[in-house]
Design brief:
6-stranded antiparallel beta sheet; about 15% helix
Length: about 260
């Protein structure tokens, strides 16, 4: 199949995406798929959902993406910017994340006391996550992380103490806990939403050619989805909002704002 200019955005050009909230991300997709450019004029709800599922199936078959993100901060421990790379192959995915900068924590807020045998009381800071590899498949799921511990040096500066310390966590196969890491990446790519949509109830075309959709589904809780879909970019989801039926539901992904999850 030859690729016309109208289909190229679906393959590469319009797959460069920046999140409107949170750290900026640039996604580089390292795969090629046969796509067809669709017009939105005759789109109806079922047609849009079918196309979302069709293009999601292309991604699910296998791709590699790279981008930037952040390890969230904790009390006294600053957030750390990261570079990440994820490869998805059917039911298996690998996600590697590495902090590009590790600012020292607030020692006074985070220090904990400990005593080595035969030595006086000493203080240290709990490990600060610097890199992590997550693997999830039908037979094995694991997370391997590396932490840095900080202590004050002889001049009172807070510096890393010793090398990185590794910690390994094992999970049941196809763990939902690790699946959330995959979906965070998929959502930022504008893909994977149809898995959590039961039905699209209404669609309307916007002035720029995008399609606004509303429907029912689930993301941790039952609720309603609001999507803006770009048919010129292989039905990429440009923005999404999930409103759980529980008004004060705690955050479950994306950016939380009074119970709403926004991507």
């Amino acid at each position: 199949m030859s690729y016309s200019e109208s289909t190229l955005p679906a393959i590469a050009r319009d797959c460069r995406r920046s999140q409107s909230r949170g750290p900026s991300s640039v996604i580089f997709l390292c795969f090629f798929a046969a796509t067809t450019a669709y017009g939105a004029g005759a789109a109806d709800a079922r047609d849009v959902l079918d196309k979302l599922r069709a293009f999601d199936a292309v991604y699910q078959a296998g791709f590699t993406a790279e981008g930037t993100g952040v390890f969230p901060g904790e009390p006294g421990i600053p957030a750390r910017p990261t570079e990440w790379k994820m490869t998805l192959d059917g039911d298996t995915f690998v996600l590697r994340e590495k902090a590009t900068e590790v600012p020292p924590p607030d020692y006074e807020k985070t220090r904990v006391a400990f005593r080595w045998p035969g030595r006086q009381l000493d203080y240290s800071v709990p490990g600060v996550l610097t890199r992590r590899t997550i693997f999830s498949g039908p037979q094995l799921c694991s997370s391997v992380g590396f932490d840095l511990t900080f202590r004050p040096d002889s001049e009172g500066r807070i510096t890393p103490s010793g090398g990185e310390k590794r910690h390994v966590q094992l999970y049941p196969p196809d763990s939902d806990a690790l699946g959330l890491f995959k979906m965070r990446i998929m959502f930022s790519l504008g893909r994977g939403y149809c898995r959590y949509i039961n039905e699209l109830e209404s669609v309307s075309q916007l002035e720029d050619g995008a399609i606004k959709c509303t429907g029912t589904g689930k993301w941790i809780w039952d609720g309603r989805w609001e999507l803006v879909v770009d048919p010129a970019a292989a039905y990429m989801v440009r923005s999404a909002k999930f409103l759980p039926e529980i008004p004060d539901a705690p955050p479950a992904g994306g950016n939380d704002f009074r119970g709403k999850m926004v991507w």
